[in-house]
Amino acid sequence: TAAEVNDFVDEIGLPIIIKASMGGGGKGMRVVRNREDLIPFYESASSEALASFGDGSVFIERFVDKPRHIEVQIIGDGEGNVIHLWERDCSIQRRHQKVIEMAPAWSLPDDLRAELHDYAVKLTSAAKYKNAGTVEFLIDSENRPYFIEVNPRIQVEHTVTEEVTGIDVVQTQIRIAGGASFEEIGLKQENIKPRGVAIQCRVTTENPERDFAPDTGTISLYRHSAGAGIRMDGVGYSGLAITPYFDSMIVKYTARGSSFAETVARMKRVLIECRIRGVKTNIPFLLNVLTHPEFETGVVTTAFIDENPGLKKVSESAWNFANEEQSDQRKVGAKERLIRYLANLAVNGHPVELGADPTKIKSEHSVDMTKKLILPEGATSTGGMRKILLEQGPEGYAKAVR
């Protein structure tokens, strides 16, 4: 309630963060830095949570400013046995929703990494956790960890964990749900080691220059890119209608390499070669992030996008895309939309709804412009292949074709 919110802030102070109890993805989440914003932000967060998840309940916790977001993938058998599949760095976020994730968090100090693994295993083991889950933490500027929550489900970014550990998290969860033990599956903590680095990018139909407002329309061309160390998970296709009623992500690319630099290079190539026309995407924005000097160090915080607004400037991208139109977001699909408009006019005529008067549209041609087939001198018409088929049957048709 509003009274409980005030009491909480009286006790621990500001800033605080309000979160939806029954959902995630940045919905129903507000950061409060000023006391006058407390109740309005609480009410708006609760209202958004109710609309998104059918439950307006929220909870409040201390807000850690500019942290790294690190999560540990765990799997439990329901009997108190839990293993971890190392960690992921999910600090690249916009409006509290993850955009780019990597595994492992290779720039994390080893002692802190071990501490997070140990805490995640102990917490879920005590709860006799069953199946796959994620234990999430925030790491402040002094490398102090703060526990956030346990997500009891498969997450979008599980692909990077699968790529570096070689373990199919989805299949493992299904087998455990069916009663299989770690021994039967072949899971031993000492055998689970990350190999290389994996990065996932979420491709969405959003316009970064409009604060990631979703774009709508029909995808006229959808062509995946591929190559060594590349994984694609998505449902996009040419002709797909993009509406504002669902999540804007249409595909996620996961790149894996022996090093962070190699993985980044592979991801950049994939994004440049991917072809999506008809709607705007965040691909130029993702490329801006991947080549930012701060990102290349491997140490970024959840405030990275907000602190670098230039990442959102994609209208005049200098990227050498496989498709020239895609390099400039202002031109994406412009020619195709013009051709479709002209084709619609040619077939259906000028729309009366826009004030066109069909009686005033007349052809200026005074002579018959129909093209006539002129046969070479001495040649005779056979009546076409259809005539041959009708008169001589399949055998005669086959003979004529040969």
Order of helices and strands: HEEHEEEEHEEHHHEEEEEEEEHEHHHHH
The dominant shape is: globular
**Strand runs, count:** 17
Approximately what portion of the residues adopt beta-strand conformation?
Answer: 15-25%
Record the strand order, biggest sheet.
8-7-4-5-6-9-16-14
- The number of helical elements comes to 12
The description of the largest β-sheet is: 8 strands, antiparallel
Low-confidence stretches: none
Q: Please give the share of residues in helix.
A: 25-40%
- What is the typical, i.e. mean, pLDDT? 88
Protein structure class: alpha+beta
Rg over CA atoms, rounded to whole Å, is 29 Å
Terminus-to-terminus distance = 84 Å
Care to describe what's here?
With 402 residues, this protein is α+β, with helices and mostly antiparallel strands. It is 32% helix and 24% strand. It is built from twelve helices and 17 strands. It has helices spanning 2-12, 38-53, 110-126, 158-165, 169-177, 182-185, 260-273, 283-290, 293-296, 304-307, 334-348, 385-401, and strands spanning 16-20, 30-32, 58-62, 68-77, 82-94, 97-103, 130-139, 145-151, 197-204, 206-207, 213-214, 217-218, 221-223, 230-234, 241-242, 249-257, 275-277. The strands form five sheets. The protein has an eight-stranded antiparallel β-sheet with strand order 8-7-4-5-6-9-16-14, with helices on both faces. Helix 7 runs antiparallel to helix 8. It is globular, with a radius of gyration of 29 Å.
